Amino acid sequence: MRRLEYKWLVGITFVLGLIMQILDMTVLNVALATLGREFHVGEATLQWVLTGYLISLAVFVPASGWIADRYGGKRTFQLAVVVFTAASVLCGLATEIWMLIGARILQGVGGGMLVPVGQAMLFRAFPAHERAKASAVLSVPITIAPMLGPLIGGALVEFASWRWIFFINVPVGGLALLAAMLFLKEEQQSRPGRFDLPGFVLAGSGLATLLVGLDQGAQTGWGKPSVWGTLIVAAVLLSGLVARELRTPEPMLDLRLLGDRLFGTGNGLLLCSTGAIFGALFLLPLYLQNLHGFGPLGSGLVLMPQALSMLATTQLVSRLYTRVGPRPLLLIGFTVLISVGLLLQLLDTATPYWLLTVLLVWLGIGMGLLMTPLQTAAFARISAASMGRASSLFNASRQVATALGTAVGATILVALTESYTSTVDVSVPSAVVQAQMSAYRGAFLASIAFGALGLLLSLRVRNADAADTLRDRSAPSGDHSHPGTTTVR
């Protein structure tokens, strides 16, 4: 099989797995209220359907790189798909809330391995100068699945059964497994190292505790001792992780990779871009539902222009990348995000939908400008042998950034809502609505702060450092060997 064919087959396989995982997350959000009524539980118990998944995801994302290096990327990817799909069936068959929570924890095991391992295999399959194309491949499920998730979830809950929001993973997972069996070659590193048990425990528990603490703070407020206690424990665990992984010659989570200028900066840029984007995407549906009266399905339809413009921009940027390099694209992308935050200050309860559509299209353009150069440049100097560990670290950063962006947006919204509504006459509905609108505007300012930090950090990116991704340095015609120490069986 020629290399040109193989890299796209890897892309198709990973896209199927990624669609399954992202659809599951976005579809579930629409059905939470229905699940609460079905199992007769309150919000506190229902929250564990999400938190349980988040914890197991956090445990297995850091370990996924070593597992794939030791047992092979193909085997690990197949295992991840099987575990995720089987757990989805168990979720759909659950008759008690504890059964659903347990199945969701099992889902997180598969999800925690699926994305980092799939991304590492994808970036190994594409030569460095074609990594922008690989990032464009990733943009398809990342864009389409969140757009379709609320629509599919709303339709299934309304016209079928909540159980089908989990059963729909079965055909997608089946296709992903079949593609992996037929298309993927086994990749196994010659020296994966010993299993770093202390690093595994510290990374999994530290990351999980941090994510839970951020989620608790956003949901219940930051003044509770339990929230601060959780974050302090997370800080202690993560400090121990850093000390351990920098000392051991065979770390579970290779933090030394952050010493590479591009990869370290890329993780920082990921924090800024994801924080800005997910903060805005968390707030916009709430704004549409609380102040414009849309339901989950309606707000999903209103947000479609953002997804479509992001998809179109990403495809264009993948072609521009090799001509202009990552630096100008990152600078323009973060400038667009900052301008979106400023334009969101114009929103009101009477904002016409055409103006909202323009803002959403502009937001999608900003997202599309950032995704390809950020990922491509971050992995520009990562060897094939280190790709699995780097992907684990990058995806761990993504999980933290997503939780942080959502937590910051939710915290500011709650705090400003309480502050503004306390100064108005609550018996006057219009005054309360205007106070809420002011709170949303203030919360949208967080996107400006994240974007400004990202803009400054983008100045550290030099096109010369990403030279391998900008021109063809592949082997001569007829030589299709993979670089690095990867053994293809």
Please provide a written account of the structure.
The structure is a single chain. Helix 2 packs parallel to helix 4 (97-125) and helix 13 (326-343) packs antiparallel against helix 16. The longest helix is centred in the N-terminal third of the chain and has 37 residues, at 3-39. Mean pLDDT is 84; it is low at 473-489. Helix content is 78%, strand content 1%. By secondary structure, it is mainly alpha-helical. The chain is globular and about 70 Å long. Strands 1-2 form a two-stranded antiparallel ribbon. It has 16 helices and two strands.
Defining traits:
489 residues, mainly alpha, 2 strands, 78% helix, globular, disordered C terminus
Put the structure in a nutshell.
With 489 residues, the protein is mainly α. It has 16 helices and two strands. The longest helix is centred in the first third of the chain and has 37 residues, at 3-39.
